[in-house]
Amino acid sequence: MRQVVMHGPGDVRVEDREDPRIVEPTDAIIRLSATCICGSDLWPYRGAEPVEDQVMGHEYVGVVEEVGSDVRTIGVGDFVVGSFWASDGTCEICRAGYQSHCVHRVLMGTIGTQAELARIPLADGTLVATPGLPGPDLIPSLVAASDVLGTGWFAAEAAQAGPGRTVAVVGDGAVGLLGVLAARQLGAERIIAFSRHADRQALARGFGATDIVEERGDDGVARLEELTGGLGAHSVIEAVGTQQAMMQAIRSARPGGHVGFVGVSHDVAVPGDELFLSGVHLHGGPAPVRQYLPRLVQLIWDREIDPGRVFDLTLPLDEAAQGYRAMDRRTATKVLLTPRRPVAPGSPSPTPSPESRRTTT
């Protein structure tokens, strides 16, 4: 199969690799219909994280080709969406809704889903089957559900977005933009998006933002206070992961407000005295996307939301390096990658017998 490998900062190649196989009886093998490049993939690409010969990718949708003998809820021929953390779905942490902290979790980025095929550990607890084979128009949105939509949704819930509330969103990448969408779906009255980029401002407004603030840092906080009568926002989403973004988020929240932080943290240190005096609630971290997938898949299937609009560049998998360059240079917000031999969504698929749905391991 073909798979994306980052050999070092700025060095992305697509290589021939061995096809994955069933290792554990709880595994599934899927043939990807689409994958994508995440903003978090840019940290090692830019040299901010160490990287050497690392397979890439953690967002994915596709058709199940093989399942292990212990898999019960997913079968061959199913079209599935999975989270960027594999989780068993049965441990106490999973049952509490925090599958990203499952006691048996596996980070899908260590397996690499920017590929034609992928092994999905803990398939029953990780994958969600769509009601049928989706049409091509739904594929980008379903890929978004795998991470950026689910992460934005978690951020909005962590920030307690809801009716009567003003929500501020720090970060205008895919997660921030879909945090806007989530806040709107959760009933927020007013949504203030921080953004300096005209194309992303337009997307933010399309997803439900009512106001745009171009200033950053303390200037952005001052502008937000002007818009909120000096009080600040009830709810703030932080979707960047830098020191400036985190402090901007905390300072944008009113006393008693909530900050949902999901930007992958890099050298962030919150001053304890400022946090103590702020009266602000903080909640966040790696999003438990699997908690939200059934709901998000249904919203997409029913065409009530269209998160796939965050993809503004689609490339063949073999041109992944070009996609990384585009996102690094901000000429693309988010890049969709399609395999060389994609499964055609909507094409008929034979119904397998119960015996053919599993592999004995």
Brief rundown of the structure:
This protein has 361 residues and is of the alpha/beta class.
Tags for this entry?
24% strand; 2 domains; 7-stranded mixed beta sheet; globular; Rossmann fold; disordered C terminus; 6-stranded parallel beta sheet; alpha/beta; Quinone Oxidoreductase, Chain A, domain 1; 12 helices; 361 residues
Describe this structure in words.
The protein is an alpha/beta fold. It has 2 domains: 2-147 and 288-357, Medium-chain alcohol dehydrogenases, catalytic domain (Quinone Oxidoreductase, Chain A, domain 1, Alpha-Beta Complex); 153-284, Rossmann fold (3-Layer(aba) Sandwich), CATH 3.40.50. The protein is 28% helix and 24% strand. The chain has 12 helices and 18 strands. The chain has helices spanning 42-45, 92-95, 123-126, 139-145, 148-158, 174-185, 198-207, 217-227, 243-252, 272-278, 289-301, 320-328; strands at 2-8, 11-16, 28-37, 54-55, 60-67, 79-82, 85-86, 106-107, 117-120, 127-129, 166-170, 190-194, 211-213, 233-238, 253-261, 281-284, 313-316, 335-338. Strands 3, 5, 6, 9, 10, 17 and 18 form a 7-stranded mixed β-sheet that branches. Strands 13-12-11-14-15-16 form a 6-stranded parallel β-sheet, sandwiched between helices. Strand 15 (253-261), helix 10 and strand 16 (281-284) form a beta-alpha-beta unit. Residues 342-361 have low confidence and may be disordered.
Number of domains: 2
Shape: globular
Rg, please?
20 Å
Which structural class best describes the helix and strand composition?
alpha/beta
User: Can you say what the CATH homologous superfamily of the largest domain is?
Assistant: Medium-chain alcohol dehydrogenases, catalytic domain
Give the helix proportion (percent range): 25-40%
Looking at the structure, the CATH topology of the largest domain is Quinone Oxidoreductase, Chain A, domain 1
Spans of at least 5 consecutive residues whose pLDDT stays below 50 are: 342-361
Per CATH, the architecture of the largest domain is: Alpha-Beta Complex
How far the N terminus sits from the C terminus, by CA atoms, comes to 22 Å
How is the biggest beta sheet arranged? 7 strands, mixed
